Amino acid sequence: MKILKQSIGIDVSKSDFKVCLGVIDEQLETKNVYEQVYANDKKGINKFIKDMVSKTDLRIPVCFVMEATGVYHQQLAYALAAQQFCVVILLPNKAKSFSKSINIRAKSDVIDAKLLCQMGLERKLSPWQPPESLFATLKVLTREREALVLQRSKLKNQLHAYQTAFVKAEKTIARLKEHILYLTRQIRDAQTDRKALVKQSQPVAARINKITKVKGLSFLSVATILAETDGFNIILNQKQLVGYSGLDVQINQSGEKMTKGCITKKGNAHLRKALYMPALSACRTNPAMKLFYAQLNERQKAKKQGVIAVQRKLLLLTYSLWKTGQDYLEKCA
């Protein structure tokens, strides 16, 4: 039996990960040949890599397929990438869609590992590339700031409620004010760390400075876009970028029925959130975007659709300026 391809499905959890090694032969029949559980720590990962080297034929293509599980898969993914293995990291919705397509109704860690193994054998999957350390750190800082701002907003709402109440708890109000001041300092510190990080790379700092000349795009907005796209290293073209952001238009067509207008929202929510306020600002201050927004509103009643279109346009403009390294010329926009 000639083996054409090998796939290793990995279901990762906090303490361990389940492994399923499968092969596909020249008759296109799949077979699971090895299953095991390893501890999700340095010792367990080293043992797993050693076992896979002995149990697979390295002359035949082999890929390691896993789902993105917060941060628990990262140590394993980086260890495999360091050994020059082909690593595939899937979004959970892709694995779920594949499970539905082959009518899998049950769910467990072992079943998920087998499912990912089968998916690696039957589908052509894009390999994962480890992000640059600068953009990986920048993503942590931008998401930290986003979480801190959300916490502060909740506390401000609580403070307003306590201050408006007929019976006022003065000590509670004082503690809330103190907490809000603390979060404000944390947000300021995160901003300082982001700028210091970007300054470590002169080419990155120079390009960001060029992009922020676009009215509506601030340092924070551009930094978030770059962090969420790994400096556009994971993006091949504009169509993929729009899909990754979830700003692509959802089309529903059947027979004579044809509806469209809503965006899919199936992409990166952090990216969409980072572009919303810049789009509102650009609609007022950026001449090119203001004209574009006005033309859209002449054809449709829902003004939010125009704002979303400006979001998409700002994202693609950022992508073009980053890839080309050119200066932004407002008269040519």
UniProtKB/TrEMBL annotation:
Residues 8-161 form the Transposase IS110-like N-terminal domain. Pfam families: DEDD_Tnp_IS110 (PF01548), Transposase_20 (PF02371). GO terms for biological process: DNA transposition. Transmembrane segments: none annotated. InterPro entries: Transp_IS110-like_N, Transpos_IS110, Transposase_20. Residues 210-293 form the Transposase IS116/IS110/IS902 C-terminal domain. GO terms for molecular function: DNA binding; transposase activity. This is IS110 family transposase. It comes from Mucilaginibacter robiniae.
